Each structure stands twice: as C-alpha cells, then as structure tokens.
C-alpha cells in the first residue's frame, strides 16, 4: 500500500442531531436526539432493524439530507450547511453507484480529475488504489462487465483514492453472497485501518458489525440504544432490545419482589431455576421500580443426559424439546418449569432426542440482569 | 432445446401466416411498388436530379438536410429542457405542464403553423400589431420553429423516460467525490443521457425532413424533397418521377431510423447499475435551475399562446384583423364538415383495434415464437414508421389505385384514391393501421420481455394449449401496452395528413384534409375551428379510453384479490 495520507483522519461529532421528514400529512421523525463522538481513525457501525434511521443519519453526514436540528462537526468544524461536494467525505453505496459511462479506471480517477491534480499524480494514485483493491486487471472494463464483488472493489478504490477524511458505507455488502461478504468485510477493515480513515459503516447484519467495528451504535426508532465495542454490546447489553437484537438470547422474566442485593458490585441474587443465582446487572444499578430481565446466552446453558456425571454446578431436571445439529455446535431446546431455554454447545459428543429427560445448568457469571 | 413455447400447433402457423400477410399488404407491398417505380428510368431521373439538388434554382436536398438538422437540434434541446423541468424542478401543476407539453402531439399539423402565421406573420398580432416588426415567417425560420414545436413532444417523452431511469445515487456518488452541481450535470448526467440526445436528434431529423404538411402551409418558396414529391404528383401527375424523389428521401430516413433503433438504442447506458434507487431528486443549484425554468417557461408560453390563438381564432371573424365574435366558422364546419368529422372518427376507430391486434401479435411472434426470423418480422412491422408518411402514401397511391393482380387473377379491386371501393376508405384505414402497428408492436415487445416465460409454461403445464395460453395469460398481461398502442394509433390517425394526402378522395373526407383546404384558401378561421374540434375529439377519445382502462383495471384488481 503506497497511498500516503495527507489529510489527517478526522473526528465526527453529532450533537443532538434530529431529522424530520416533511410528508403529505405532517412530518416523520427519522432520527432524534442523536449524540455521538467518533474518534479519528475509528470505524463505527450503525446497527439496527430496518427503518431505525441508520441511512438517514449517514446521509446527514454526507450532506445529502438536511439536518433538522442539532450540530454536526467534522474535524471540529461545523458542517451543517456545507454542500456535499465540499465535505471531506467519500461514500460507498449499496448499489455501488459506478458511473456506467466510464470504465473502471475512469471511475476511480473521477474524484481526482475534478480536483485538477497533475496527470502523473492522478496516474500514480489511481494505479496504487487499483492495485491495493486488486482490480488493476479490469482497468479498461465497463462496470457492467464486472461481478458484484469486483464492482464493490472499484467503488471502494474510487472512494479512498481521493483521500477523504471520513469514509461512509451504506450496507455496502448486502448485494453480495455470503462468502464474498465475509471476504469483502475483512478487506474493508484492512484498507480502513491501513489508511486510518475515520469510517461509519451502516449495516443490519450484526455479525458484520461485530467483526469489523471498533465500536457499534445500536439504534431503534431513530434513537441510540447503546454505544460500545463489540464485546460490551454482546456481553453487557444495555437492555433487552439490544440483547435480543445481537445474537440469540434467553430472556427470563424477573419477579422483582424476590430479588435481593448480592455481595459483589452490581450483583443481585435472582431466583432462577429454583435457586438464587448471583447475577450482575449491566449499565444501571438494581432498582425494583423498573422491569428487568435475566439474560442468559445460549452458550451459557449446559445440557447433559440424566445419567452423565454432574460437573458440580447447580442443575435441574428438564426435558428436551428440540435438537439441531450444525457441525461445529448443536442447539438444544429444553423445557424447565414451563420455561423454554435454548442451549448452544460446541464440540462433538452432544446428542439428544426430543423427549429425552435431561439436566440443565447455567453459567451464572456470564448471565446478566438487564432492563426490559 | 424445444420447449412448449417453440413447439407449434397449426393454429400458430395460421396466425403467423395471417400476420405476415397483413404486414405484407399494409407496408411491404406499397413500399416495394414504390421502389419499382423509383427504379424505372423516369424514377431514376427523379432520383439523380434530387441528389443534385432538384430541378429548380434552389438545392432541395440541401434544404431538406438543413431543415432536418435545425429542427433536430432545437427539438432535442427543447425536449431535454422540458423533461428536466418536469422531472427535476419542484413546482405545482406538473400534470398540467405535461399535458401542455404533449399538446402538439395530439393536434393536426396545421394547427401550429396557422397560429404562427396569425401571431408572427407579416400582419401577425405580435410581430406587426404589437411590435411593429417587419418579418416574414414563410420559409426556413418559420418552418424550423413550427416543426420544432410540433415534434418536441417526441423528444420530451424520450427524455422523461431516460431521466426517470437515471439512478440518483450516481449523482450522490459524484457529489461525495467532490463534484459540484454543475460538474455533476456535465460529467455524469449529460454523458449518461448522450444516447437520449442522439435518439431525439435522429427521430426529429427524420420527422422534419419528411414532413409535408408544414412545408406546404408555411414553406413559401422554400422547397424540400417532400414538397417536390407533392408537386410532381399534384402538379404534373408524374408519379414515377415522384417515386424517384421519394427514394432520395427514403434512403436517409430509413437509415437514420434504423441507426437510431438498432445502434443508438442499444448504446443506452442508463440503469445498468445494481438496483434502481428511488425517485429522481429535485435540482438544488440555482445556476442550473434558473436557465431550465426560464427556457421551459418560455417554451410553454409559446405553446399556450399558439393554442389560445387556435381556440380563440375559431370564434373571431378574422383573428388579428377583425376580432369580432363570430360563430360563422363553426357553422361552416358543422354544415360542410360534419361528414368529415364522422368519417375520420369512424375510420380511426376501425383502424386502431386492428393496429393493436396486428402489432401485439407481431410482438408475440417476435418475442415468443420465432427465432431467426424474429428480427425480420420485427423490421417489417416497424417499417410503417420508418418509411416517411409522404412516401408511404405515395406507395399506396401507386400500389392500390388500380386493382391488384396475382398470376393473372384479380386479387383485390382498387382500394385507394379516387374511383376505388368505399370511396377509398379502405386505403386510408390501411395507412392508419400501418402507422399504428409499430407503436403497438414496440410497446408489446417491451411488455412481453418483462413477462416471465414461466407464467406461460405454468399455464401450459395446467393443460392450456398454445392458443389458450395466448388468450388467457399472455394477452391480459400485456393489456396495458396494447392500450398504449391504441391511444397512439388514435392520435396518429386523427391528425395525419402527410401519409394520406395522395389517396384522399372527394367521397371520403378526412378532417386533416379539410383543414389543409381551408389553410390553402386562406380561411384561417375555419381551420382554427376544425383544429379545435379535432383536438377536442382526440382528447375525448383519450379520456374515454383512460376511464375505461381504470374501470377495467380496478375490476381485475379486485378479482385478483379474491382469488
Ligand atoms: N424521504 C423520506 N421521507 C419520509 N420519510 C422517510 C424518508 N426517508 C426515510 N424516511 C423514514 O425515516 C425512517 C428511517 O429511514 P432510514 O432509511 O434511515 O432507515 P434505515 O435504518 O436505513 O433502514 P434500512 O435498514 O431498511 O435501510 C424510516 O421510518 C423511513 O420511513
Ligand atoms: Mg438504509
């Protein structure tokens, strides 16, 4: 990689950003009270269900949507009223948006030519960008003569060659097949960290977000639910929505009157499976006036045959309802006290049949008490 | 591999034969007969004379080319500006804008010419009365303006479709790479519309170069190939010579038409990228908006002015000279022209369904049935539009004004021009059909390409024979495009004069012919009244068709839900 960055990576700061669309009847609030500070060189993903405002927020950064309220700064400079083409950003689109009347090379050179850079400099920058994206051999082809993955590489080369301070991605991989998606996201991450460009990556694929992000912003209905690194988002979800959206989870109702304060920090004793388990709360301290749930990730649920030796943990009688085999892991659904618990166990040697009697135990340290 | 679609029953063969025969008689035969005359010695004389510029002291060939180029350029720009205004500017009344922009398409050829003379002529209301200018609209400048106004709807529609298909994310991509609004326009939008500009120019070039009506009404001393043809026939009765001149016009027209259709058309780069992303967004740069708004506004004003003149002109004694209210013109046309009105409407209503049936069957054969020969059939079908109206009409006069013989047997009596059966109505209807088939065929081909073959295969697997599939599955699926063909044929037929000028007869009066007579005689008031009635009739038929369509599609929609 020989592109050297003249432009410093920049911070992006959202302060109370709100977006309302005017429609035929009144207005729709797409984003409300959005506060976020993105550090220079960071890759932040916006993650959330369809219609939660990810694209809208991203397009406000690009300048394609007007900001109704709040302040947006890039590198400390307010950009609310700056036109898109004057912002130091580049965007990679879901549809690739390659110019059909230009060939691959001309597409990549587009932004540089607009700046009237000297010819040999353009040549050099374009060459190295195409090389780093492995598309040099397609230089003379028209966009429609490339596969989806190749097109997206061209789009990425075109976006980085102008040395933007911020790189924006709107679901760039969703038109690719599963295998290619995994490869491309690795590549995006590689380029991004090599160049150290501040990036915002919109996706609704949680695995994608987890695998490439420094931090993830989980959104719902135009609001931020949680901001954190992938580990925090998965292990310490702020609430039941985040827990449910990221990965799979068992969420158990909690009878607030039966909860007691525990010994450790933020630890409470919660009745689960007929015993009082010490479980930590996430985010906020225990407060009986709110509604809470116990989050138990499936990999924290162990299931064993009745006749197998106990590992010593507290376990209870259960019955197998369903069993699925995935190769590297199995998924077992058990019924305990009228509850259904999902378990995921890695490795071989786990085999159950529906209807089997079994015993279930839970790894309490990995479970959390979270706000509903 | 032979699937059921290409496996044929005798029905299909019979149908194919019928379509081919129909196309043969409505376009191919007259064209071939015309070529036959053109290659006679007198014909070749006409041809070579035309190539050298014609008999008179002006170069008719050059005149034709100049007229075509100027109209092509002006109409191309006009259509682009109007389409940009409609699709990319924010304003109220877009439907009205659209209707006004399309108005020239549904009015007879002399409407604008006559209004132009009244407004901008030597004693024109604007040029003389208002501004006191000394201008003469007769000749090239007037022709260019009138023809550009008349044919701009063609390029306008073309651009509307193309601009709608531009992927708005491409513009955003350009902007995010640092392109200003102007640069986005010049580096992305315009280059992607390039095939559209070529198409618009070529189509308008052909229309203008081959137009006869306006050069007759407004040409003055400015002669073009089409008027040469007319004068050769009408003046000297020298049909063979006319056919030779026609050949000089036919070669460039047909070449340009097919260049446009098979080369430029295929070059279209619009919408190759992934998935189309939403509505075109309004322009935001005042530097682009202002010129478009001003130009479109001016164009619209001109059109409105023309049609107000037409509407008012029918009720004034002599508009611009004696402006007193008078119903004399309407009395005149309803007394002497009611025949023409009913004849025109009935012939149109006979021709349109026939054109739709032939056109959509041709489309079906081209897309679904034929393989190697599909291209040939497609070509024969669109020939009715590729051959300029004047020439097709001349071909009819040559081919059908005497009985048609085949191997010593009389196949057909004389069906066109004076002294033929039904007063020549059959010939006129056939011309209407010939001009209508291509539109119907093209829209049905487009629709059929969208319909998955698997739907037809599903029907077949449920036990439907090829004919049942055609009637029960295919036809309903392309109903909308058949309707397009219908409305197109109606507007074309009601307003056409060029293509039938050689075969109209005293017994079968058509409105457009009547208007020509009135214009020729300088009775503009009558012409205005005729034009108004004609436009009103076309609008009435279009609106009735649209209402019927809504009624039917609503019914079929509800029935779909209950299934
Ligand atoms: N132009 C518009 N006019 C009105 N409402 C809009 C417009 N664009 C988006 N919205 C609304 O704003 C909300 C957020 O839309 P947005 O496109 O940002 O969602 P998203 O998170 O990107 O969803 P997806 O995952 O489906 O792309 C949605 O409720 C949507 O209906
Ligand atoms: Mg989105």
From TrEMBL, chain B:
State the compartments where it is located: Cell membrane; Membrane
Write one Pfam family the protein is assigned to. BPD_transp_1
**All copies of domain ABC transmembrane type-1, residue ranges:** 61-260, 341-545
- Which residue ranges run through the membrane? 12-32, 60-84, 96-120, 140-159, 188-206, 239-259, 292-320, 340-367, 379-399, 411-434, 477-504, 524-548
- Has keyword Transport? yes
What GO terms fall under cellular component here? plasma membrane
Q: Which GO terms describe its biological process?
A: transmembrane transport
Topology within the bilayer: Multi-pass membrane protein
Keywords from UniProt, A to Z, are:
Membrane, Transmembrane, Transmembrane helix, Transport
Q: Which family does it belong to?
A: Belongs to the binding-protein-dependent transport system permease family.
Return the PANTHER family for the record: POLYGALACTURONAN_RHAMNOGALACTURONAN TRANSPORT SYSTEM PERMEASE PROTEIN YTEP, PROTEIN LPLB
By what name is this protein known?
ABC transporter permease subunit
Q: What's the source species for this entry?
A: Rothia koreensis
């Amino acid at each position: 990689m020989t592109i050297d960055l003249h432009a410093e990576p920049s911070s992006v700061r959202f302060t109370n950003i709100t977006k309302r669309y005017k429609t035929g009847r009144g207005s729709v609030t797409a984003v409300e009270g959005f506060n976020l500070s993105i550090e220079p060189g960071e890759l932040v993903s916006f993650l959330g269900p369809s219609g939660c405002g990810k694209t809208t927020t991203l397009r406000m950064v690009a300048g394609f949507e007007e900001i109704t309220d709040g302040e947006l700064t890039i590198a400390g400079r307010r950009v609310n009223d700056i036109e898109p083409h004057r912002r130091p950003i580049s965007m990679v689109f879901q549809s690739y948006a390659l110019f059909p009347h230009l060939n691959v090379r001309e597409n990549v050179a587009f932004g540089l030519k607009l700046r009237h850079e000297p010819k040999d400099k353009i040549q050099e920058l374009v060459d190295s960008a195409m090389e780093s994206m492995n598309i040099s051999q397609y230089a003379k082809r028209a966009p429609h003569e490339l596969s989806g993955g190749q097109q997206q590489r061209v789009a990425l080369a075109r976006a980085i060659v102008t040395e933007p301070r911020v790189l924006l991605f709107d679901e760039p991989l969703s038109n690719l097949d599963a295998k290619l998606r995994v490869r491309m996201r690795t590549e995006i991450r590689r380029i991004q960290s090599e160049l150290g460009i501040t990036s915002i990556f919109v996706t609704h694929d949680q695995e994608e977000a987890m695998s490439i992000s420094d931090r993830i912003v989980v959104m719902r209905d135009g609001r931020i639910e949680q901001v954190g690194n992938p580990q925090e988002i998965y292990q310490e979800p702020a609430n039941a929505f985040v827990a449910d959206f990221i990965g799979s989870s068992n969420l158990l109702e909690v009878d607030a009157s039966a909860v007691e304060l525990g010994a450790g920090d933020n630890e409470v004793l919660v009745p689960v499976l007929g015993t009082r388990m010490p479980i930590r709360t996430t985010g906020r301290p225990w407060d009986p006036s709110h509604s809470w749930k116990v989050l138990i990730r499936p990999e924290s649920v162990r299931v064993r045959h009745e006749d197998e030796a106990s590992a010593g943990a507290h376990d209870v009688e259960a019955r197998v309802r369903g069993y699925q085999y995935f190769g590297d892991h199995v998924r077992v659904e058990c019924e305990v006290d009228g509850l259904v618990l999902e378990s995921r166990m890695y490795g071989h040697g786990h085999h159950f049949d529906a209807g089997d009697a079994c015993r279930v135990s839970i790894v309490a340290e990995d479970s959390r008490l979270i706000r509903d | 591999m032979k699937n059921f679609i290409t496996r044929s029953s005798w029905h299909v063969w019979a149908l194919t034969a019928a379509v081919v025969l129909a196309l043969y008689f409505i376009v191919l035969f007259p064209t071939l007969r015309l070529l036959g005359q053109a290659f006679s010695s007198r014909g070749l004389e006409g041809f070579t004379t035309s190539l050298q510029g014609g008999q008179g002291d002006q170069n008719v060939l050059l005149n034709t080319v100049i007229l075509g180029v100027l109209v092509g350029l002006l109409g191309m720009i006009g259509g682009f500006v109007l389409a940009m205004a409609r699709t990319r500017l924010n304003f109220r009344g877009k439907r009205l804008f659209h209707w006004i922009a399309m108005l020239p398409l549904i009015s007879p050829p002399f409407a604008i010419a006559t209004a132009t003379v009244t407004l901008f002529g030597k004693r024109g209301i604007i040029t003389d009365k208002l501004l006191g200018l000394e201008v003469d609209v007769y000749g090239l400048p007037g022709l260019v303006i009138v023809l550009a106004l008349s044919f701009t709807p063609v390029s306008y529609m073309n651009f509307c479709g193309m601009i709608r298909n531009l992927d708005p994310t491409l513009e955003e991509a350009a902007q995010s790479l640092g392109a200003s609004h102007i640069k986005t326009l010049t580096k992305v939008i315009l280059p992607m519309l390039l095939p559209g500009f070529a198409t618009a120019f070529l189509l308008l070039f052909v229309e203008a170069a081959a137009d006869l009506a306006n050069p007759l009404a407004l040409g003055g001393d400015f002669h073009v190939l089409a008027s040469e043809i007319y004068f050769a026939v009408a003046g000297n009765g020298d049909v063979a010579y006319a056919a030779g001149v026609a050949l000089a016009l036919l070669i460039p027209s047909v070449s340009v038409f097919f260049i446009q259709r098979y080369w430029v058309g295929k070059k279209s780069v619009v919408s190759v990228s992934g998935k189309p992303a939403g509505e075109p967004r309004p322009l935001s740069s005042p530097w682009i908006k202002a010129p478009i708004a001003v130009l479109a506004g001016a164009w619209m004003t001109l059109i409105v002015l023309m049609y107000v003149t037409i509407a008012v002109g029918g009720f004034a004694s002599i508009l611009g000279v004696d402006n007193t209210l008078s119903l004399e013109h309407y009395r005149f046309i309803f007394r002497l022209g009611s025949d023409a009105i009913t004849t025109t409407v009935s012939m149109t209503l006979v021709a349109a369904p026939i054109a739709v049936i032939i056109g959509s069957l041709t489309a079906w054969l081209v897309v679904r049935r034929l393989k190697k020969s599909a291209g040939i059939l497609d070509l024969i079908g669109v020939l009715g539009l590729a051959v300029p109206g004047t020439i097709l009409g001349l071909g009819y006069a040559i081919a059908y004004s005497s009985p048609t013989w085949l191997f010593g047997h009389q196949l057909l009596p004389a069906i066109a021009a004076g002294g033929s059966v039904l007063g020549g109505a059959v010939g006129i209807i056939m011309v209407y059909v010939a001009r209508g088939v291509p539109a119907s065929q093209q829209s049905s081909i487009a629709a059929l390409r969208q319909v998955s073959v698997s739907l037809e295969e599903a029907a077949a697997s449920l036990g439907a024979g090829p004919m049942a599939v055609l009637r029960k599955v295919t036809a309903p699926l392309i109903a909308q495009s058949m309707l397009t063909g219908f409305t197109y044929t109606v507007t074309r037929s009601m307003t056409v004069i060029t293509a039938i000028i050689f075969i109209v007869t005293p017994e079968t009066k058509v409105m457009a012919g009547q208007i020509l007579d009135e214009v020729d005689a300088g009775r503009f008031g009558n012409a205005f009244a005729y034009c108004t009635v004609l436009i009103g009739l076309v609008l009435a038929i279009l609106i009735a068709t649209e209402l019927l369509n809504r009624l039917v599609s609503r019914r079929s929609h509800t029935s779909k839900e209950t299934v």
